[in-house]
Structures are given as structure tokens and as C-alpha cells.
Amino acid sequence: MADLYRKRPVVIEAMRFIGTADELIQVYDWIANSIGEYNRLRPKKTPRGGVSVDPYSGDLYIKTLEGEMRCKYGDWVIKGVKDEFYPCANDIFIHIYEPVNKKDDELPRMMDEIRTIDKPKTPYEAMVDAIEQIEIRKRRSE
What is the number of domains present in the chain? Predict the structure, then answer.
């Protein structure tokens, strides 16, 4: 018979990837400023860690300790205890994590908001705009 285990209480940082252009840039910068960035279309130049935006779908791709992982609309990006980043599906996230430093009466409302965030109405247009903004910033920094 298997033994029972409880997950240790660890505070993590997380951001939700809901697909708006501004939000994509915030999540992208958060990851890129910590572990770097790469271009998925040039796999020979792929570093060990980083983040990339798929220009076709607008999804984020994150180099994790387990390899490259896809972050889709509605997923969360989690910064782990070893400063690694990885995506987590919303339905898993809401069962494992709860907001820290919030009053008990605020938690149900916050969790309801987390469960009901919808996809953007035009994700392709939002992603194109965000990718263009990221590319412009890259050119300026070179």
C-alpha cells in the first residue's frame, strides 16, 4: 500500500498567461530578464534556458529543467524554488495554490476571478501586436 504525502508549503511567484498583448509582454519580460530568451525558429542557436513566442499561435515556449514546454492561453507561469520557470494548467493551479497575504474573505472572490478569465476575443491580433513590440525592443537594445 502506498504512503500518503502532503506537499510542503512553499511560496511561489506566478503570473497568468491570458493572451493580451500587454500581459504577454509582462510575462515574457519576467522570464527573459531571469533566464534569457531564444528564437524557436532557429533551433541550432537555442540556449539551455529562456523563453520564446511562437509567431503562429502566440503561445509561449519555456525552456525548463525537463525540456521545452508550451504555455497556452489561461495557463500560469510559475517561478520555482530554484528560480526555474515552468507552465501550469489553470485547473491544476487552482487546486494546488492560493493567493498569499490576502484576507480570508477575499480568497473565494479571487479564486472565482481566476477560474473565469476568458481567452482574448482575437488572440492572433493580440499576439502579433505583442511580438512586434518585443521585436522593436530587441532592435533598440542591439
Answer: 1
Q: Is residue 3 part of a domain?
A: no
Residue 81 CB coordination number (10 Å): 9
Question: 76 is in which domain, residue-wise?
Answer: 13-131
| Separation between Cα atoms, residue 25 and residue 100, nearest integer Å | 24
| pTM listed for this prediction | 0.65
Assess if residue 63 is contained within a domain. Answer: yes
**Which cell numbers in the block locate residue 4?**
500518503
- Angle between helices 21-35 and 123-141 in degrees, nearest 10: 40
For 43-87, the pLDDT digits (tens) are: 555 556 788 888 777 788 888 888 889 998 888 999 988 888 999
